[in-house]
Amino acid sequence: MLSISLPLPARCVHALFVLQITALGLLLGGCSRSQHGPDADVRRPDGAGDGADSAVALHVLDFEGIQRLIAEQRGKVVVLDCWSTSCEPCMKEFPGLVALHRKFGPQRVACISLSFDYEGLGKPEDVQPAVLDFLRRQQATFTNVLCSEESDLLYERLKLSSIPAVFVYDQQGTLVKRFTASDPSQPAFTYEDVEQLVTQLLNG
């Protein structure tokens, strides 16, 4: 996969490469690190209204806090969805996480969305409103996290080259499978694939 690494002083010229990187990311089925893309026209799930907006929250955590959050879900299957509002494929697949949460409920399956929106400029709180707006439109009433560490570092720590990506952990907290769009030789994953694995883990 082609990647473009920009030295820190060159961040300001990153926008010159937006169209090229966006086109490449869509061809490979995902969005690579430091990639921006146009907002997708993602509508609310059928039947979703404004009433659940107050139940949607966004927590800012560092990487260690995210790991603790996952560990605290011991006894449940954990589905961690890595996404960003600048990644069109991410927003198109996000309703799959919402549907998964509605199907299985929070007692047996812990759904967690992890936003890669903070890219190291300003403060994480600066991007919070846009992320929260999307989550509210999706009625994402599960646990939503915005990483307080810049996205490039988060990619490295999670050993990812692109998003969307979904990590599934079993009831003992062991990572069972990583669904990613980074390998163009493999078919793109869908939430049907994720749901099938979750069902298998729940059935023992």
Uncertain residue segments? 1-28, 36-51
- Spatial separation of the terminal alpha carbons: 36 Å
Q: Which whole number gives the mean pLDDT?
A: 81
| Helix proportion | 25-40%
Q: What's the SSE pattern?
A: HEEHEHEHEHEEEH
CATH architectural arrangement:
3-Layer(aba) Sandwich
**Given the helix and strand composition, which structural class is it?**
alpha/beta
The CATH superfamily bears the name Glutaredoxin
Outline type: globular
**Percentage beta strand:** 15-25%
- Give the strand order of the largest sheet, numbering strands 1, 2, ... along the chain: 2-5-4-3-7-8
SS summary, helix count: 6
Brief characterization of the structure:
This protein is of the alpha/beta class. It contains 6 helices and 8 strands.
How would you describe the overall organization of this protein?
The N terminus is likely disordered. This protein is globular. The chain has six helices and eight strands, in the order αββαβαβαβαβββα. The chain has one domain: Glutaredoxin. Helices cover 35% and strands 18% of the residues. The protein starts with 17 loop residues before the first helix and ends with a helix. It has a six-stranded mixed β-sheet with strand order 2-5-4-3-7-8. A two-stranded antiparallel sheet has the order 1-6. With 204 residues, the chain is of the alpha/beta class. The longest helix is centred in the middle third of the chain and has 17 residues.
